[in-house]
Design goal:
Structural class: mainly beta
Distance between the termini: 41 Å
Radius of gyration: 17 Å
Strand order of the largest sheet: 1-2-3-4
Number of strands: 18
Length: 196
């Protein structure tokens, strides 16, 4: 196993703590995932299930699983005790530059290099129907609301809000003069913070 601090000071593509804060999962650009005991710096396991860099990593609510998404659109559901696949490797069907997880960890919004957004249910392995991509908006950022019922999407200078229970857009498109670098829900989801 490698030294904890040398790994943390090297290039890490993605990282996530479990809900207790006791375990840290890190992912490298070669597709390798490591799980650490954060209090001791001990490496629990190292696994590689992706052939390309990992773009996102997430612990679902119960912490028994670790979900990783690769740049090639592959998604792995790992058993946190062993690091082995809990289910066969899944595919989002498109190369992926960013992946955003819903609050329970079992829904994922994936962005392709061309700005196409796809939303998948990881439990069923199926694409969610009625996606916001029908608006032909090139999307660079996306965030689920804290309750998972809403989604905020943004391109270079516009933001759209969506009700995922019926896939209907909430209100008009919001226009901004500057380039949008980030979006995030604040509080319980009643506000949206836009980084320009």
């Amino acid at each position: 196993s490698k030294d904890f601090w040398s790994i943390l000071s090297s290039s890490i593509a993605a990282a996530a703590f479990d809900s207790s804060g006791d375990r840290l999962a890190t992912a490298s650009s070669d597709g390798e995932v490591r799980l650490w005991d954060f209090s001791t710096g001990r490496e629990i396991w190292t696994k590689r299930h992706h052939e390309q860099p990992i773009v996102s990593i997430h612990f679902p609510t119960e912490d028994k699983h670790l979900i990783t998404a690769g740049a090639d659109g592959s998604v792995a559901d790992l058993d946190t005790e062993t690091g082995e696949l809990s289910t066969p490797l899944m595919s989002l069907g498109t190369p992926t530059t960013h992946a955003f997880f819903g609050p329970n960890g079992w829904r994922i919004a994936a962005l392709s290099p061309s700005g196409v957004l796809k939303i998948w249910s990881l439990e069923s392995g199926k694409l969610t129907p009625g996606l916001p991509e029908s608006e032909n908006m090139e999307i660079f950022h996306a965030r689920f609301s804290p309750d998972g019922a809403g989604l905020a999407t943004a391109n270079e200078n516009q933001v759209q809000l969506w009700n995922l229970s019926n896939d209907v857009r909430i209100g008009p498109t919001l226009d901004f003069a500057g380039i949008i670098n980030a979006i995030e829900y604040a509080g319980a989801g009643e506000r949206i913070v836009i980084g320009l």
